[in-house]
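Side project, low priority. Logging it here so it doesn't get lost.
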Amino acid sequence: MTLFEFYTNLRRDVLRQISGVEDSNGYLSWDNTTPNYLIKSRLESLLEKYIVEAKEFGVYVVTRYANCARGTHGDEYPVENRYGLEIQYQDAHFVWEGDQLYQGLRISTCPCSPQNKPNKNHVIDDIIYIKSCNMADCSKISAMLCDIHEAVENAADKKTRSGIREHLLRAILRINDAILPMPVDEYIATEIHKNA
């Protein structure tokens, strides 16, 4: 898959999601809009799909454990990932810009010991890039993934759906800028300067 195909596929899938996010009719019995839990589930699937595909362009999402229930966890940050790779925190093969997809409590199993059981742990989902990849493209993909994650966060029960649409629209704007030969703001500035 090319980077252009990644962007255009992501754009298509995000646009499909936006079109399905309609304001509910309150507590009326005939409200047949899609409930937030279904929107959230669809967005989580979309996010997971593109997190996996982003690996092709050097973007990885790894989970860092800040602490766990085990008293001897220590000051290190054990890291796990969905790719089956051995990646240590601050691994020299990757750029750790500080981009985070999530930070908070999650029921999971900390990898600091094979005896650990699922528990409520403080985790950080870091977005990291392979050093040899195009950092500008990695940064764009990271921002798009963060926008989709924000839409997922806004899809909680009893939350307004405008927040979901807002973050998905921001992702579309970022994708459009990545697809076009130059960002729209740059094009506008060029045209204004040319006509001045």
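Brief comment: The chain has a mean pLDDT of 88.
Revisit when time allows.
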